[in-house]
Design goal:
Number of strands: 18
CATH superfamily of the largest domain: P-loop containing nucleotide triphosphate hydrolases
Structural class: alpha/beta
CATH topology of the largest domain: Rossmann fold
Order of helices and strands: EEEEHEEHEHHHEHEHEEHHEEEHEEEEH
Number of helices: 11
CATH class of the largest domain: Alpha Beta
Bound molecules: adenosine-5'-triphosphate
Number of domains: 2
Largest sheet: 6 strands, mixed
Radius of gyration: 25 Å
């Protein structure tokens, strides 16, 4: 990894009426994908807007390659950082192709003519985001997910060293969410861009981010490699709530449904799907004691020796046995 592209020094973010977070001493390196996470209202959008120059800091400074953000002209800024704001842009009635080409505006000459280099950049952005089939469609006619991909393509066509994206996966289906995160991760690695995105996709962020910036409800920002933030409990503390339990083994959250139902213990290999079904039905799963269920290769065996091959029939049997 090369040097630091973006740095903040004692940065305080927020509004005249309220401070949201600070002091923040953050750095974003070239070639690095950082995911900004935090519960609703923690300050993710406020931080994204402040780092992108759309909102003034309350205090402190932001440096891009050592230059204070406010010292850069709008054109200089547009050559250094691109911005993808998911729901807050109105691209008018332009076609997707025209919107993507607009990404080159900071680089074109005063006539606004696209050179072969501009054309090549645009084509690369289209190929990377798989938006070729949308080029002639008008923006208002696109689905939310399609529009989101076009806005990413525009940012890629802008070809800046820093890309900031506010919830870029918000409207995408699961395969497209995964594809977008993989693309951004690959881009950071192969082109040396510094990429910061805010997201509510905790599991995807855990798997793809080089580092996390995790804002907790009190405005504290924890930065680190995802696995360190999981292992030291920061991740869990930031998101755990009543009824929600973080599973450090799988990196996922599980809904905690009951503290009162009949106790069931499991013998044999662990089965996450059986646990989930039992928890939903209101059973408490313990290491031993209570009603014993054996997990076999061919199904699930109850204490009375019956074998069930579907969870549905097993649950029906348990209901009769344990909830009478
Ligand atoms: N224009 C504003 N004036 C005053 N306070 C604001 C303004 N916009 C947002 N806030 C407050 O700042 C805090 C941070 O808001 P922000 O939108 O940055 O959170 P977020 O982490 O992006 O939330 P979400 O996940 O819900 O999008 C919230 O308490 C919010 O109510």
């Amino acid at each position: 990894m090369t040097g630091i592209f973006l740095q903040t020094d004692a940065l305080h973010i927020g509004y005249a009426s309220r401070s949201v977070s600070g002091p923040l001493n953050l750095s974003l390196r070239k070639g690095e994908l950082v995911c900004l996470l935090g519960p609703n209202g923690a300050g993710k959008s406020t931080l994204m807007r402040t780092l992108s120059g759309l909102q003034a800091p309350l205090k402190g400074s932001i440096l891009l390659e050592g230059i204070p953000l406010e010292a850069l002209s709008p054109l200089e800024l547009a050559r250094k950082r691109s911005l993808v704001l998911t729901d807050r842009t109105d691209p008018g009635n332009l076609t997707a192709g025209e919107v993507i080409a607009l990404g080159r505006t900071p680089h074109t000459n005063w006539l606004g003519r696209l050179t072969p280099v501009d054309q090549q950049q645009i084509q690369t952005a289209i190929d990377l985001t798989d938006t070729g089939f949308l080029l002639s469609r008008r923006m208002p006619e696109l689905s939310d997910g399609e529009r989101q991909k076009v806005m990413l393509a525009r940012a890629l066509a802008q070809d800046t060293d820093l890309i900031l994206l506010d919830e870029p996966t918000a409207h995408l289906d699961l395969p497209n969410r995964v594809a977008m995160m993989q693309l951004l991760h690959r881009l950071a690695r192969t082109t040396g861009k510094a990429i910061l995105l805010s997201t509510h996709e905790l599991d995807l962020a855990l798997q793809t981010a080089d580092r996390l910036w995790l804002i907790t409800r009190d405005g504290t920002l924890h930065a680190g490699v995802p696995e360190d933030l999981v292992l030291n409990g920061t991740f869990e503390t930031a998101f755990a709530r009543d009824g929600l339990q973080f599973d450090r083994q799988t990196g996922g959250f599980r809904i905690r449904l009951t503290e009162e139902g009949p106790v069931v213990s499991l013998a044999g290999p662990d089965s996450i799907w059986l646990r989930q079904a039992l928890a939903r039905e209101g059973y408490r799963i313990r290491a031993d004691g209570g009603y014993l269920l054996s997990v076999e290769e061919s199904g699930w065996k109850t204490t009375d020796g019956q074998l069930f091959t579907t969870i549905e029939t097993l649950l029906a049997h348990l209901r009769n046995q344990l909830f009478q």
